[in-house]
Amino acid sequence: MSAPTPMQRPPAEVRYADELARLRERDTAARPPGWALSVQAARAFIVGDAKAKVSRKFVGDPSLIDRALISLATSRGLMLVGEPGTAKSLLSELLAAAVSGESTLTIQGGAATTEDQIRYSWNYALLVADGPSTRSLVPAPLLRGMAEGRTVRFEEITRCPLEVQDTLLSPLSDRVLAIPELTGRDAMVFARDGFNIIATANTRDRGVNDMSSALKRRFNFETVFPIADFDTELSLVEAEASALLRRSGVTAAPRRDVLEVLVTTFRELRTGETARGDSMDRLSAVMSTAEAVSVAHAVGLRGWFLRGEPGTAEDLVTCLAGTAAKDNQEDLAKLRRYLEQQVTWRSGRQWRALHAARHLLPG
Amino acid sequence: MPVTFIGVRHHSPACARLTARTIDALQPAYVLIEGPADLNHRIDELLLGHELPVAVFSSYRDGERRHGSWAPFCAYSPEWVALTHGRTAGAELRFIDLPAWHPAFAGRSNRYADAELRYAEVMERLCREFDVDNVDVLWDHLFEIGADDDLFERLAAYFDLVRGTSAAGEQDTAREAYMASWVRAAAADAGDRPVVVVTGGFHRPALAAALDGPAAWPTVPALPEDAVGGSFLVPYSFRRLDAFDGYQSGMPSPGYYQELYDSGPDQAARHLIEQVAQRLRERRQPVSTADLIAARATADGLATIRGHDAPTRADVLDGLASALVTEALEVPLPWASRGMLRPGSHPVVVEMVAALSGARVGRLHPGTPAPPLVHDAGAELERSGLAGNADLDLDLLDPPDRERSRTLHRLRLLGVPGFRRDAGPATGVEPVLREQWALRPDAGRLTALIEAGAYGATLADACAGVLAERAATAGRDVDALAAVLFDAALSGTDDVSDQAMTDIEATVAAAADLGALGRMLAVVLTMWRHDRIFGTARSATLGVVINAAVRRILWLAEGVRGGPAPADLGRIAALAACRDALRYADRALSLDRAPALEIVTRVAADTGAPPDLRGAAFGFRWSLAPGLTEVEGEAAVDPMRAVRSAFVPGSAGDWLAGLFALAREEVLHTEPVLALLDELLSGMDPQEFLVALPGLRQAFEFFPPRERETIAGRLLARRGLGGSGRGLLRGAPDPAVVAAGLLLDARVEAALRREGLTGREEADT
């Protein structure tokens, strides 16, 4: 075998293979049937454990992880809901890697997702030649997860049509999948211990497709919130943006006071409430931490490649228009109103610069 | 001299059990308790046999400072257990802390509030270390669940750790020095017999370290010369004790902890799940048996992985939330962070918190001395001759009558039955100067006054307390807030607490309805400018409200979107009130005109804003601008241009309604504008005119009859016609007759045209 091809982003079980191995070694607690780790070790994998040299991978309430893991150990699926950009998919990947040691049994939901991509399909050449048999059967993630006792991830489930979502009903409640084309023992695939489903859904997508209440009942819902603590979010944005800038060949680190203004702006437009307590309209665009990082990246790029210095508040205004407000006129108006009225009462050089640069908004 | 220091967390069942066990085992000579020392000669009052929870309410007032604070006790308060078990053991009971009015308690309204807030940094580190969400969860995890074996040592280690890393503040240092002097005196007096000291755990290390020193009974600080104050017992409630409901309230969920104290964690968990299911089913929310099984299973599972023998509060809550909430949450679960329940919480979560809180309300033993409010109110009623049966007609301009009116309003606001107002001013703007009251002595008067005694020692203080609470609960309801402010004026309550002020500002800052905000600002501004009757003219409180409302109205005005729609008089009035505030109060309240003018200039020019608002915004600017030559480099106001550009036949009336509401005077005194309006209106074809007519009628309503007459007169003059404006206005006959006339005109014209008679006639003339 040659050396593995470098991947842009290896799955969690590869990225953190050594941490998982260490946790497995030290894991003495009882494991739920079919699990690769005990619940305690799986929790440590996600929230971090300094003693076992396991890094903290998810910033959020530890109780959320507890509830998610317990849900997976019971007979209900786990549904992670929340605003876009709140690291739901990362969390589902980490949970799958911790529970099953593998996070790649993934169904990506979309308007074009069909039952074939969820349950199984056929190798048509073999099907025509031999008729239906286990040889001509091509298992999809759900069938594999049930047969092998693994965690199946279903991303963006509400982007699928309702009837496709309902494919999950009997696997979740009866823990069995029927293959009517086959006969005998092969016609029924019973789920082995360790099988469960982690689904994710964006709250902004609720308009696309709803979920049937029958399916809702079979899931425990967990809402993932944006980072509650300002300093935590600021540090995260600073770290991520600095890393991105370095990869883009920018040697000037982002200015902390500009980042403070950026993160405050994002948080206020996201929650619809200023630090002083005024309530405002939220933007319809996504103001997630991930978006904040990408704006910080763009601000740094502008500053560096246009002037050879770290990004300023003027760059921030320009980038906000493109990245945050996009082409939505209403959002642009909200952003303008924010810059006009909610920036003036703050002290600080960068806030004044932001106010002065408000004319840079297009339109 | 054996002194046992028990460091406790206030309102902790585990600490209460430890205190009871220790006192029962040691049979001490003295039990010293963190509590107001000025109450020592009245400890018997506490032990009369009340229904808990009760609280010691202390009030204080001097020339510059007013302070009210509570020391609440419930059945599982370690301090309460120390009192009851100490009494049974025959020990001498002493409260050893400074009185509540002492400056060391400035700014604190609850003696037994959690001290964790003062050690936030180290608590955060501990929570991180144990991977728990917050201090309450950490406390339950460490102490409330599991065996009590070495609780004493574990508590000591915990508090030593927390306290050891940070210095106490000045206030805590003063209190600890005072408490230590009591401990030394009691230890010396007890000789060989044991002494038990029950204080907040954070004080324990400091007290234990100060055991050596002179031992003399300390004196209880006396009230300063010019001050009045005192402490007395009042009934309390679980709701007020709950941290989800108020500030500085101690441990959350008193109902749950009571159950935990009475019957242990398993029973408490089961009871909690039952309560939540019952409450939800009463509200017709579906809760299936499968859901409850899932909730219980999840709670047990969580308890297992978190290392608890039985599920804790957070385990049960997490289990219930997992199983019962089947959609995305708007705000995070309230027990994940500390503090009040946030608006937008999921209904299931709200019911869960209510079930945790419990509905228990304390009641005092009948033999308890009545709180001073009862005496104050009685004396006040006697003095003003209001005690008996009477029907009163009060003249608010007459000082003694005004004083009586205030007393009556205070009683009304405290909910004391038997005082009914039949007539009087209902808002701050109408000139009503008399009030009618019906006084009917009621058996419920005494009970109501005892309950209200928890708000303050005098009618004025209690009334201020009630109003502050109403301001806090107003939420985003501006009308409710306006009622509070007006009630404050009626009852002569002029010193509003800082907290209430913050709450009022928060309500205004979050208000979403321009109309309500405008109504409130109009009333408040009138009261601030003129009101000598209620003494609210130039009141600082109202000044703050005006400031906040002006800011908020301008913010909301810029956000209103929408095409042509019938004029919304509420929002026009809001802009008018805002303009008045800037016109009359800008210097006194340091309101800034320039940004306001910038905002209205933008609104006036914004094609996405509704026409009435654009008109009002333009009127706003016109009416304030004359004194101001330039607005950030823009040309001065040009009404001709503005009218021309805004005059779209369909929405002209709405635009004009906004303009006339704010700049009536300016329009009236600018001849060219009237001429232009005449020209534009005459230029409309009949169909357009009919469409615009209702809006136009509404717009011209803003002119009082005399001014309408002036306009009519000018119109006649422009057309070179004689007669008075009054005649033209009075001549407006029944619209049906006008319509019939128009129809006849049209028919005649059609006939003339048919016969080819129009052209020649025109040629002739």
Write a structural description.
The complex is a heterodimer of chains A (363) and B (765). With 363 residues, chain A is α/β, with parallel strands linked by helices. In chain A, 46% of the residues lie in helices and 11% in strands. Chain A has 17 helices and nine strands. Chain A has helices at residues 12-15, 17-26, 39-47, 62-73, 88-100, 115-118, 124-130, 141-148, 162-165, 169-173, 213-217, 230-247, 256-271, 289-307, 313-325, 329-341, 349-356, and strands spanning 77-82, 106-108, 120-122, 137-139, 151-155, 176-178, 188-190, 196-202, 219-224. In chain A, the strands form three sheets. Chain A has a five-stranded parallel sheet. Chain A has a two-stranded antiparallel sheet with strand order 3-4. Among the domains of chain B are: 3-113 and 170-236, no CATH class; 254-357, no CATH class; 734-765, no CATH class. Chain B has 32 helices and ten strands. In chain B, β3 and β4 (66-73) form a beta hairpin. Chain B starts with a strand and ends with a helix. Chains A and B meet through α3, α4, α11, β9 and α16 of A and α11, α12, α19, α21 and α23 of B.
